[in-house]
Amino acid sequence: MTDRTIPAPAPEHGPADAGDAGYRKSLKARHINMIAIGGAIGTGLFLGAGGRLAQAGPALAIVYAVCGLFAFFVVRSLGELILHRPSSGAFVSYAREFMGEKGAYTAGWMHFLNWSTTGIADITAIALYAHYWSVFTPVPQWVLALIALAIVLTLNLVSVKLFGELEFWFAIIKVAALVLFMVIGIFLVVTQHPIDGSAPGPQLIGERGGIFPAGVLPMVLIMQGVIFAYAAVELVGVAAGETENPAKVMPKAINSIMWRIGLFYVGSVVLLAMLMPWDAYSKSESPFVTVLSHIGVPAAGDVMNLVVLTAAMSSLNSGLYSTGRILRSMSMAGSAPKFTGVMNANSVPYGGILLTAAVCVVGVGLNYLMPAEAFEIVLNFASIGILATWAIIVLCHLLFVRKARRGEVTRPGYRLPFSPYTEIVTLAFLASVVVLMGFDETGRITLMALPLIILALVIGWFRVRKQIDTSAFEKAEA
């Protein structure tokens, strides 16, 4: 199937999502574009790239490119579903339409697992960033994590318009900082300005063992961590339900994700590998801060550290936003607690947001008990949630295409190319990442916890199945 980038016709609506009622269409095109950017640039790049460079070397750029391609396939699948029927319930709503309420239940709670644990990773990252400055060093990591959570939670509860504005400016800061860093980095490479006595350039990669200094295996094993870097790309689907003209805005925003991945992720890693030896980076510090701190520019490291702290705040803000909307859609069907479906006077589903924040408070405790390991532990649990969410999105799209071939629905003009082969290959890739987790020590702990996650889902389903009520959705459709 060839890709068509022409403006899509008006979407053909499937079963309406009762959870969409009550929202204000406050998000503008600029908000959506920046939410897409923010989803493609986050903590996984700003903090995670340092440790992964130290582990796999310049080969990290290849991993980012491969994972980025499949992330694009996922969000492109979601984009077609959005134009079929925009919904704040996003993939939960599509799972309900194409897989039934069991599918919606699984999609929703795995997304909640993803973003509640990602929230813990974000507040951990914020605390680590703050410790870069000596003024915050005496403050315990868990206290800084709690303060960060309180600030972002308060802002998220005000209104969707404030969320959109925050994400807009967070994204502006991230993009501007990355562009500025890349300009500085390219200047250093071109002028051969020495960093710690070594001239930057492509030769630095060759002198330190080439593209695969630690072999191919470490490159393959870090894939599950790299997936985390792209975890927020699916948020554009949730935001679609609060957008004035999704059929016009979404294709442009989603298409731009591909070049952003190539420029910011792959380009940044290649540049980092040419500026300093790959083993000069560490997981305890942002690689961008490492470089700027070594080139002698006054306060350069402080400025970049402030930027990466902003990125973590942005990710936490997005996680609270999306889980609030997803849990509301589930609550309307009875597969989530009733209180997660309530809205405040500003049309913000605060019940679900507070539930996610409550899990993040558990993360504050984790920062108290295990401050050194907190980030890596929750990173792997978040990866399980991400992989499940992405797999459900792709599976929903595959079922949607099959219904279209039977003439039951009409595909919009904006389509995932080479369907159904693209979906099949993507699902196989996501399954392979799960297998790869077994070769990593922290990943093995996560896989051992997987049966417990599945058991919790099964027990939860048997508890809620009798209270499932989709009549509200049928009324909404009528």
Attribute tags:
disordered N terminus; 478 residues; 20 helices
Q: How far apart lie the N and C ends?
A: 33 Å
Number of domains: 1
Q: Give the tally of β-strands.
A: 0
Taken from the alpha-carbon principal axes, the silhouette is globular
Detailed description of the structure:
- There is one protein chain.
- The protein is an all-alpha fold and 478 residues long.
- The chain has one domain (24-464): Amino acid/polyamine transporter I (Up-down Bundle).
- 69% of the residues lie in helices and 0% in strands.
- The chain is built from 20 helices and no strands.
- Helix 6 (101-130) runs antiparallel to helix 15 (300-333), helix 11 crosses helix 17 (374-405) and helix 14 (287-294) packs antiparallel against helix 15 (300-333).
- It is globular and about 70 Å long.
- The model is unreliable at 1-12 (pLDDT under 50).
Brief characterization of the structure:
This protein has helices at residues 29-40, 43-46, 48-56, 60-84, 90-99, 101-130, 141-156, 160-191, 203-207, 216-221, 223-229, 235-239, 246-275, 287-294, 300-333, 350-369, 374-405, 421-436, 441-464, 471-477. It has 478 residues and is mostly helical.
